[in-house]
Amino acid sequence: NQYRGRDLDNYRAEFQKLLERAIDLAGKEPKKVVVVSIPDWGVTKFGKESGRDTTEIARQLDAYNAANAQIAKMLHCGYVDVTAVSRQGGNQGAMLVSDGLHPSAKMYTAWSERILPAAKDALSQH
After folding, report:
1. What is the pTM of this model?
2. Residue 3's CB: how many other CB atoms inside 10 A?
3. Which one of 2, 10, 34, 61 is least enclosed by Cβ atoms within 10 Å?
4. CB 30 within 8 Å of CB 75
5. pLDDT band at 93 (very low <50, low <70, confident <90, very high)
6. Closest CA to 26 of 78, 73, 101
7. Alpha helices, DSSP H, located in the chain
8. Rounded Cα–Cα distance for residues 8 and 14 (Å)
9. Cα(50)–Cα(125) distance, rounded to whole angstroms?
10. Residue 126: what pLDDT?
11. In whole angstroms, what is the distance from residue 19 CA to residue 82 CA?
């Protein structure tokens, strides 16, 4: 949504519907669902060469992530922030594949290390 320039209210509505669907698919047990924040693509080589204002991208993504965190909390789901990791490593070549945008296995590993405790917790819910 952010990349396509859709507004935050549109994102909130769509995200909440998707999260409610995920909860339904998890047997109506929200504690079994983990939301992962949106990485900051603006820090990547692609983002920097996109011609878009990377400070504005970061500001918008912070607003989107505040919304998804709030909705996750409201619906009693887990939440993991990987945005900080993307900002720390997203401008390093080893953290991206050759297109300069998408995460490499190294970046996915860093995210997974953040996500794993929440995933284990979610999977242990009865």
Report:
1. 0.91
2. 14
3. 10
4. yes
5. confident
6. 78
7. 8-25, 45-49, 54-74, 83-89, 105-123
8. 10
9. 43
10. 66
11. 18
